[in-house]
Amino acid sequence: ARWNWNRRTGAEGLPRGIVQTSSDMFLRPLWDPAANRAIPKNKNDRHKALLAMAVGISQMQNVDVMARKFLNESYTVMLFHYDGNVDGWRSLEWSDKAIHIVAPNQTKWWFAKRFLHPSVVAIYDFIFLWDEDLGVENFDPRRYIDIMVSEGLEITQPALDPDLSTDIHHRITIRNKMTKVHRRVYDNRSSMNCSDDSKGPPCTGWVEGMAPVFSRAAWKCVWHLIQQNDLIHGWGLDMKLGYCAQGDRAEKVGVIDSEYVVHQGIPSLGGPSDTSKLPRRSLDLRTHIRRQSSAELEKFKERWEKAVREDDEWMDPFDA
């Protein structure tokens, strides 16, 4: 009977006091135990955050600006190198403070599923899983987190600057200069028809996949939603993130306007771009990747519908 406390962890053969159920991303010294005191502490000593990005060396200058914003607040930065080039980042003075993981031609969702398990990142209050092409001149991560907490938000994204962003797909992501946060968009077009009566995406309870931010509780759910082996582009996840919002997605999911970013729309693993400047081979590759992404979207939809049909105990909390 004394083992019941940890049977589900697989640690039933161990004494209780030796079991460590989580980890962190802090770099530890190989010598001088006293150096452990150098482990960074958050300036405001309230919340810990992790910024994780899939990056390529061609975007090093922009990533440098992004990473400094977070490192200046003593937050952790993890870079997923999809082009295999790590040495090229050594010239940045903060490079040795970041976690570097390499796997050629993989997406951030592929990396996140394998290296951001909830138990590994449990020490962090917030997970920023961002693309590499965001302009952060008007973004402060500490203020952003404070807003998430004060507004009771579990899943968010920073609003997009409509004047400078080159790649905006959804109106709900556009910055509202009159508000600190918005949770829904109004649209009278027949294809959208978003009103106060709208209960779900893309009118409310929705953020885009380019710059999501998750609370610890939300990420524990989202990690399980990411499909591990075959659907690596993550298309379709955005429409289901609200199920991980720890409550009413119309209240717990939002776009933060006062801390906003610029989406530069730089191509990465098949993303949209100014195709006039790309060599033919790159165009062909991106076409194939986007076709694969679209195919994965359909597979994800089918997989969700099949799971709903087969789980007799699950009830859709948002089913009107």
TrEMBL record:
InterPro entries documented for this protein: DUF707
Pfam families associated with the record: DUF707
Xref: PANTHER family: OS06G0731900 PROTEIN (PTHR31210)
Protein name stated in the entry: Lysine ketoglutarate reductase trans-splicing related 1
Protein's organism: Aegilops tauschii subsp. strangulata (Goatgrass)
Organism lineage: Eukaryota, Viridiplantae, Streptophyta, Embryophyta, Tracheophyta
